[in-house]
Amino acid sequence: MAETFRALLITENADKTFDREVVSRPFEDLPENDVLVRVSHIGICGTDYHIFEGKHPYLAYPRVMGHEFSGTVAAINRSASVAVGQDVQPARVVEAGG
CA 42, CA 60: separation in Å to the nearest integer? Predict the structure, then answer.
């Protein structure tokens, strides 16, 4: 498995403009009872659009985008209700890469 993943990072500048950059982030240890999903498809929602444009009123920057996705379970730490190799579409809203 790769040691890093790619993420879209949105950063606010002092002049209130925004930079957008694809960055590599390291994988952290997988928390107990969590799964690692190899993402194959993503969705773009209205929140993502506002984050990308730097117009979301309730978020702080820098911000890594993305919470609508599907993929395949790549690893499990301890126990889970899914299996390695299973296709999944997580329903939980999370941010990737903190």
Answer: 22
pLDDT, one tens digit per residue, over 18-31 is 899 999 988 878 88
Q: Does the pTM exceed 0.85?
A: no
Rounded CA-CA distance 26/43 in Å is: 23
Query: Rounded distance, CA 21 to CA 37, Å?
Result: 22
Does the pLDDT at position 98 exceed 50? no
Residue with tokens 């890594």, as numbered in its chain: 64
Local structure of residue 53 (DSSP, 8 states): H
Q: Considering only CA atoms, which of 36, 32, 26, 11 is closest in space to residue 77?
A: 32
